[in-house]
Amino acid sequence: GSEINEIESYMRDNTESKEKSEMFGVAKDKNVIFVSVESMQNFTLDSKINGEEVTPFMNDLKESKDTIFFPNFYHQTAQGKTSDSEFIVENSMYPLPRGSVYFTHAQNEYNALPEILNENDYYTSVFHANNKSFWNRDVMYDNISYDKFHGEESYEATPQNSFGWGLEDKAFFEQSIKYLKAQEEPFYSKFITLTHHFPFELPEDKANIDKYDSGSRTLNHYFPTARYTDESLEQFFQQLKDAGLYEDSIIVLMGDHYGISEYHNKAMAQFLGKEEITPYDHVQLQRVPFMIHIPGYEGGKQYDKIAGQIDVKPTLMHLLGIEEENDLSFGTDLFTEDRKGYIAMRDGSFVSDKYVYSDDICYDRETGEQVSEEQAEACQPIKEKVDKELGYSDSIIYGDLFRFYNFEEGQQQEKEESEE
Ligand code: GP9
Ligand code: MN
């Protein structure tokens, strides 16, 4: 148990929010509808194909007076893709350097968001129209106490409403409403979309925007499916209103990870009007949409600060007014001023307020220019912290260290008491 003590001290010093912002409890007792939007990257927002917006609904939504939008929000996933993003959001911990935690450590002790929400009288559920055992979700969800998982068998898939990976997003949302309505309130429900997934195939008659024209078939096809999913979200919001669920809920949209890998850098550079995609650009392309829509809030704004999936759990708890004094998280709620100042990627790259560090190169975050050797030294202390943090997170997972941690009391407190 001594390593967990060390980790606890680190977290208390570095990631614990020392004060409550004015956002604490703003969404108290509201339902939370969390939508994990498959492969949606930030560059898609506000981009156009032949003069047409790709994501008109999300573009409007992020500007809404009821929406808090984070344009510098990064995904932090690795090989576990969607399952990594789920793991990060649920636990405010990093995914593993290899494989998927959902597969390799599904039986560990966690203090995951659904468990905490359950204890706070929330009903918790997941909606995803794929095979339940994909990414070992059934096992992990059970361990972290989701009350209900609606998988493939909860939906009616026909040749008309399916393609590619299965049931299309519009049918997925539409068929989910009856289950959502039947849930006890307040609830936390996670929706995982599927249509906008590699290889981004969409039947012609369902495409409402042109393909792009480049040497990458993947990038070309990315836009019509992105538009399709944007339309499905618009319909979902309307269905929530029609079902009387909208007013009492907050709706969170988050991109799970990139959709366009670096294999398509050439086409991507063409699309963005750049000569090439540098390691700096690559990191910046890992930004994914993150917006929190609070009907009736009217205080909506854009927070430009750097943020990541690691911050989602503490942020949601903060909005819901849930205090967990001894919870351990590597992220921080996004409304506090007192944050650690960097977002770590699984491969050791990071983004800080001033720098972007990748491939051992320190870039100026503002300009994208490599900084002078002297200045680059400023990246080193951050790099050390990033490596330390990733290592701590790995230790917790590999050693199942939360078995030795008391989430009610906190370890240090317990230790002090036993020393008396
Ligand atoms: C599978 C879906 C896609 O159920 O979530 O997973 P991904 O390939 O993106 O990890
Ligand atoms: Mn995914």
UniProtKB/TrEMBL annotation:
Residues 30-322 form the Sulfatase N-terminal domain. Its main location: membrane. Keywords: Cell membrane, Membrane, Transferase, Transmembrane, Transmembrane helix. Its EC number is 2.7.8.-. The keyword Transmembrane helix applies. It is a multi-pass membrane protein. The keyword NAD does not apply. It comes from the Bacteria. It is found in: Cell membrane. GO terms for molecular function: transferase activity. Belongs to the LTA synthase family. This is LTA synthase family protein. The chain holds residues 214 to 633 of 633 of the full protein.
